[in-house]
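Morning. Coffee machine broken again, so started the prediction first thing and wrote up yesterday's gels while waiting. Chain of 238 residues, entered below exactly as on the submission form.
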Amino acid sequence: MSLFLDFVFIFFIGSMIGWVGELLFRGILYKKWVNPGFLVGPYLPIYGFGLASLTLIYLVFSGFSINPFFIILLMGISMTLIELVGGLFFINAGGVKLWDYSDLKYNYKGIICPQFSLLWTALGAIYYYFLAEKVFVALEWFGNNLSFSFVLGIFFGVIIIDYIYSTNTLVKIRRFAKDNNFIIKYEEFKKHIKEIQKKNEEKYSFIFSFRQSKKLSDYLKSYKKNKIVFFNRKDSNK
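Came back before lunch.
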C-alpha cells in the first residue's frame, strides 16, 4: 500500500510540474499562452505517468551494474511510448489532436517524432543525474507526512470531475470533426477562441477555454472556416 501511495504522490508531482513546464514551453517557444492539455485544471496526467515511469525504471535498474546510457535510453523510449499511447487514443477516438508534430521530419501520425524522443531522452538524463535523488527526498517527506494523502484524495477527486466535464466538451468537438471530416487541433482551437475574444475585446477564460460568449458550435465553424482559408492561401502560394 505504501508503494502504491508513493507512486500516487509521484503522479501528483509530475502532473503539476508537467502542466507548468508545458505552459511555459508553449508560451515562450510558440507564443501560445493557453491552458495546455485536455483537462481544465492545472495538471497534465501524461507527465504524471511519465515521472512515475522514470522513477520505476530508475528503481529497477539503477541497482545493477548497467551503463547509465542504456537506462537513460530506456527512459526516453518509455516517455515516447506514453506519448504514442496518449496520442493514438485521441486520434483513434475521433478527429482531435492534443498536439501535432506533422511539420517535423519522420513523425508518426503527428504524435511522436525523433526530435521529441531525443528531448524525452535528454529529460531522462536530467532525471537520472540531477532529479532522482530529489524525488526520493520528496518521497521521504511524504512517508513522514502521510496526512498529505488527504490532499491526494482531493486531487484525484477533482481530476475525476474534471475528466467528466472535459469529456462532455470533447464529445461535442469530436462530433463536429466527424460530421465535417475534419481534424481539430485542440490547442490551436483554444488559441483561435482566444484570438476571437481579443479581437472582440471580450473577457477570455484561461481555465475554461471553451466556456465563452458564443456557442461552441459557432467557434468550431469559425475555426474550420479559418483553416480552409489558410490552406487555400497556402495552396495558391505553391
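The first strand starts at residue 96 and ends at 97. Going to sketch it on the whiteboard this afternoon.
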